Amino acid sequence: MTTTVLDSRLLNDVLRDILSPFDLPPVEDVATRRQLARTLLSGRDNGSFDGLALAYAVVAFYSSTEDGAAQVLDLVREDADVFVLDGVRGGYLLLPCAQDEHTGLARELHARLGADVWMGVAWAPRRDLASARATAEDVLRIASGRAPGVYELRHVLADFAVLRQPHVAERLTRMIEPVVAQQPLLDALRAFIAEDGNRAAAARRLDIHRSTLDHRLRLVERLTGCRPTSPRALLTLSVALTAHSAPEVPLPHLF
Description:
The chain is of the alpha+beta class. It folds into 2 domains: 24-156, Reverse transcriptase/Diguanylate cyclase domain (Alpha-Beta Plaits, 2-Layer Sandwich), CATH 3.30.70.270; 165-245, Arc Repressor Mutant, subunit A. 54% of the residues lie in helices and 13% in strands. It has a 5-stranded mixed β-sheet. Helix 5 (129-143) links the parallel strand 4 and strand 5 (149-151). Helix 9 crosses helix 10. The relative contact order is 0.12. The model is unreliable at 11-27 (pLDDT under 50).
């Protein structure tokens, strides 16, 4: 009888060790839930996590301050269905939702924040969350050079395509470097892009005369071969600026 009890205990111990990684963590166990988020985002989910949603919105977020990042975490802290992998000024949220709800959920969350926060959002079923995370990261990286807000792939499609092609990004970076080296030209180009090619609005933004802006845009054309007043060329110049200066965002490591 003693042997049977010992065997039973050993079996239980072994089963507990084997199965524990696949148990749902208790809500209050922040460290375990963070590890589950890391597992899902890195693509190591083998489908054995019973009780999880079938699909998630992956929100990669970044704040200009630590307090802003803390605000994001405070808003989702009490939601047992949301998984978080957080860093100092950025991190990931996993929001269970249907495909047509993911952007709305991120926007609702962003609207409740009082800080400058950028969010890149992608949706995927659980088996594809690693790919969605990579997309959300790239979208966030591009968006961090724009106004704070919620961005999807469709908002940054041209920039995204270039960043995924390093040889193209390198060529565009070389093209735009002479402009980046001259601050007045860089400011003029950025203002022109921000105002969607509206000369008068860009001049007002810079507080310069329109003729001064036109002169600087002509210099941009001379240095790059791209005429900023052409919509197609302006898109090329915008993407080139992204390729040159898209920052790395401080997201937590997955491995």
